[in-house]
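Researcher: We plan to redesign the surface later, but first we want a full-length starting point. Tokens attached.
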């Protein structure tokens, strides 16, 4: 086989490398900078030029080689290239060709274009390794413009009522996507340190983002009336968030499709926006590869594999340690039935 699924990760014997391994290896090809895909401890890393700054920020001093999108690198007996996944800035699918047989490891991906990431590129292949974080028909993303209007209307109403707007979003990818949708004429945007540090890295590599104000120990709420406060969802349950009162809380996530998740999180508003493909996006991406063999991972794997099999694919479940999109302690376990 061109790729093998091992206890350390997805392995290419012909090139003696792993894709997004979860245990330390000699050579790792990394799809993007999220912690479940880019882990510490590998001897050598390969990623896209655009993913490199965040990876160095998160992993420290690593031996990291980079390639441009579409650039072919010969590694042993394998031809390897990285192509846009549309997930977060710098994210990639990994195309591996050995003896004319082509495999593609998608990592995490989404098909909806945004102002931050290189748009998803369909790749023809014989075998496709696909996430299915949101592999149920209930996950149907609304148009991005409509979600932006909802967020801005919520923020404006809170500001008019003298409330802060606390909005939870992943520090890498989701937070910057939310920022790109905001109408900053409504008020200032304050950021948690995890978000602001990532903003700084992305701004340094040329990504245009609205101005933000980092929250520091000296930040006084009276100096920022009507502010929207952007933070990882886990910060809401800490003392960090208690200084911003009165407040309305919201979370931006694909999981907000499920009312049970919104209820368990105890937030006032849920905004359906995800950096992963929804049900239609997963099906479209797989169809466009032309692959008959599909290996599904992290998400509703059993349900999605059965669906693909019913559609004529050779679909198989691949256990991995990838997590997809979570809500810290508030997300349902991967593959569980929706609440």
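Model: Full-length starting sequence:
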């Amino acid at each position: 086989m061109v790729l093998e699924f091992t206890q350390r990760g997805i392995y290419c014997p012909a090139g003696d490398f792993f894709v997004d391994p979860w245990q330390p290896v000699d050579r790792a090809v990394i799809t993007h900078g999220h912690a479940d895909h880019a882990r510490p401890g590998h001897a050598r890393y390969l990623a896209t030029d655009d993913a490199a700054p965040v990876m160095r920020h998160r992993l420290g001093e690593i031996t990291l080689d980079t390639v441009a999108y579409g650039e072919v690198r010969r590694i042993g007996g394998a031809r390897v290239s990285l192509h846009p996944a549309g997930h977060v800035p710098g994210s990639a699918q990994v195309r591996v060709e050995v003896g004319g047989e082509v495999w593609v490891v998608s990592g995490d991906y989404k098909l909806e274009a945004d102002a931050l990431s290189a748009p998803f590129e369909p790749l023809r292949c014989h075998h496709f390794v696909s996430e299915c974080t949101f592999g149920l028909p209930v996950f149907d993303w609304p148009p991005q413009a409509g979600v932006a209007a909802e967020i801005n209307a919520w923020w404006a109403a809170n500001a008019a009522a003298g409330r802060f707007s606390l909005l939870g979003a992943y520090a890498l990818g989701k937070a910057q996507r939310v920022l790109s949708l905001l109408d900053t004429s409504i008020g200032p945007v304050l950021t948690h340190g995890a978000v602001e540090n990532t903003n700084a890295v992305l701004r340094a590599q040329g990504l245009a983002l609205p101005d933000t104000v980092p929250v520091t120990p000296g930040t006084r709420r009276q100096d920022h009336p009507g502010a929207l406060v952007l933070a990882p969802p886990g910060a809401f349950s800490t003392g960090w968030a208690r200084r911003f009162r009165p407040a309305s809380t919201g979370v931006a996530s694909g999981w907000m499709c499920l009312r049970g998740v919104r209820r368990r999180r105890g937030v006032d508003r849920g905004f359906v926006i995800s950096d992963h493909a929804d049900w239609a996006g997963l099906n479209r991406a797989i169809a466009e590869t032309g692959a008959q063999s599909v290996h599904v991972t992290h998400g509703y794997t059993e349900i999605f594999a059965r669906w693909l099999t019913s559609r004529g694919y050779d679909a198989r479940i691949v256990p991995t340690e990838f997590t997809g999109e979570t809500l810290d302690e508030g997300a349902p376990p991967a593959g569980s039935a929706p609440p």
